[in-house]
Amino acid sequence: METGLDIGLIVTSVLTIVLVLLHRGKGGGLSSLFGGGVQSSLSGSSVVERNLDRLTVFVGLIWFILIIGVGVNIKLS
């Protein structure tokens, strides 16, 4: 169980970092590398940003749950 928590924590940590870097900031961020820097008159970019926000929050919650699980596992050992 400890190994599974550790692997999950590493995967969600890396995924959280990648997702945060993909968000468009004031300067465009890394999302401009994947076509996010091109301004479109369509509303598709806002849908993509909203989905990226949701995915980031979801991964962050999973990461938080794994942190609690690791802490409980350490406390019990």
Which ranges are low-confidence, i.e. pLDDT below 50, for 5 or more consecutive residues?
A: none
> What is the H/E order?
HH
Class by alpha and beta content: mainly alpha
Distance separating the two termini: 12 Å
Shape assignment: elongated
Number of strands: 0
Number of helices in the DSSP assignment:
2
β-strand amount: under 5%
Radius of gyration: 16 Å
Mean pLDDT: 83
Biggest sheet: strands, sense, closure? none
Share in helix: over 70%
Give an overview in words.
With 77 residues, the protein is an all-alpha fold. The protein has two helices and no strands. Helix 1 runs antiparallel to helix 2 (44-76).
Note the topology.
Elements (H helix, E strand, L loop, with lengths): L1 H21 L21 H33 L1
Helix pairs in contact: 1-2
Keywords:
single chain, 77 residues, mainly alpha, 2 helices, 0% strand
In short:
By secondary structure, the chain is mainly alpha-helical. It has 2 helices and no strands.
